[in-house]
Amino acid sequence: MEEKFLTDLKEVFEIEDREINMDDKFREYPEWSSLAYLSIIAMLDEAYDFQIEEADFKKLITVRDLYTAANKK
Amino acid sequence: MALLQFDGVGISAMAAAVPHTIINNYEYTQYFPADQVKEVVDKVGVFERRFADEKTCSSDLCFAAAEKLLTDNQIDRSEIDVLIFVSQTPDYRMPATSILLQERLKLPQTTLAFDMNLGCSAYLYGLSTVYALMQQQGLRKALLLDGETRSKVYSPKDRRTAFIFGDAGTATLIERNERFGESYFSLNSDGSREDLIKINAGGYRNPSTAETLKEKVVDEYGNIRSEEQGYMKGGDVFNFVIREIPSDIQHILAYSGTDKDQLDYIIFHQANTFINTYLAKKLKLDTAKIPSTIEKYGNTSSVSVPLTIVSELKDKLNGDNAILLSAFGVGMTWASAVVNFNDCKISDIVEV
Questions:
Q1: What is the mean pLDDT of residues B42-70?
Q2: Residue A56 has pLDDT above 80, yes or no
Q3: Number of domains in chain A
Q4: What is the DSSP-derived secondary structure letter of residue A2?
Q5: Which of the 8 DSSP states describes residue B230?
Q6: Where in the sequence numbering do the catalytic residues of B fall?
Q7: Of A14, A58, B106, B181, which sees the most CB atoms within 10 A?
Q8: How many beta-carbon contacts under 8 Å exist across A and B?
Q9: What's the complex ipTM?
């Protein structure tokens, strides 16, 4: 599950040159932007049927935070 | 629940006008570096849009569209009993712009006229209001004018809104006739989301002052605007779309007894390519049925639905055509409709 999430997230960020990890702070990726944010919430809705408001999203810091939130339901 | 059904009322003719000035978005680089501009433009899918000059108002664009419609279809102006002007960029705070247009278009004083201020979903609200009025047998023809000069509302120094919006005006003629068949509307509102898209000052809650006119840096990205320019929280708007729009479209399809495969065309509010691609995928819609004008006219707010019909469906609306309309925006408000078009006469787009 974690592996698939990492693959999905890499695709959203269009990261091809390296691996990413569950403990990464995704806002520190050079690919992070307000546009990447839109792509992430689209991915979370499509792949995980998970919707999140911007204020709650701001509390998520690491990839693991995202993963846990998306799978919490 | 605001579900509406009408029988024997429909759109007999449409026209549109756009400003002649074309903004090439990749070259709109006076405030941001070209590589950043390219990234935003590629994502939102707005390659060109039209900007009105400082003397041109929404009403001028609608006037040009209405003149084209009335002339092309040889309409007797004395038969126009209803005139509704839909806009959030009126000429004045008062009087209502529709009243000025009654005089400019040489319509009779017996014309019922008023403005509707609502935002991106307003064409559907306006159309359903006209359809409701037209239940009155005494009313012969109605003119729904929908115009916006969004270029005058947003800061060119705020990258979240600088590359999206454009200007245009449209005219729609509505009449009663059995050939139009049935039409269905779903209309919604949610004021708890009032801060997603807003112009905070310049009204009566926060009146205009020297302070509200000052440009300020508003966020950690260095975006600049005044309190009297619009802002948009794009992420939250997209969240709103995810939560509300697919279910409302399912709702109107069920209410109207329409299978999505029976639709001839689907017209989305031209918010941006990212959102419309998402909606088409989510609802598993046939993209061949979804015309788009976002790439050449941008997001023209409430005008985008009728503008897309005029631009992309000219000569294609012979006989019966079941068309799904869907729009959402500031408020928030959102609306969906399944409207039967029958022999709708569409004029060529006028440049002003």
A1: 96
A2: yes
A3: 1
A4: H
A5: B
A6: 120, 269, 299
A7: B181
A8: 37
A9: 0.77
